[in-house]
Write a structure and sequence with these properties.
- By secondary structure, this protein is mainly α.
- The protein has a single domain, classed as Rossmann fold (3-Layer(aba) Sandwich).
- 51% of the residues lie in helices and 12% in strands.
- It contains three helices and two strands.
- The chain has a two-stranded parallel sheet.
- The radius of gyration is 13 Å and the shape is flat.
- The termini are far apart.
């Protein structure tokens, strides 16, 4: 099972579908972002990631979960 399949399964399950999924990949080719979003990913990031913006993103998702 790849990440796209795993994401589709997560998003198909009503009990866990609200868990944010962030795709982090080295594949930055055309269409990869669209493929990730079509699979149900909430965000798409390419490697290498910058830790500051990544942690800010996680903080944003965690704050949304707390409301």
């Amino acid at each position: 099972m790849d990440g796209w399949e795993a994401t589709a399964l997560i998003k198909a399950d009503p009990s866990i579908r609200d868990i944010p999924v962030i795709a982090i990949t080295a594949h930055a080719m055309d269409g990869e972002r669209e493929r990730a979003l079509a699979a149900g990913c909430d965000l798409f990031m390419t490697k290498p990631i910058q830790l500051g913006p990544f942690f800010a993103l996680l903080d944003r998702f965690l704050k949304q979960e707390g409301t």
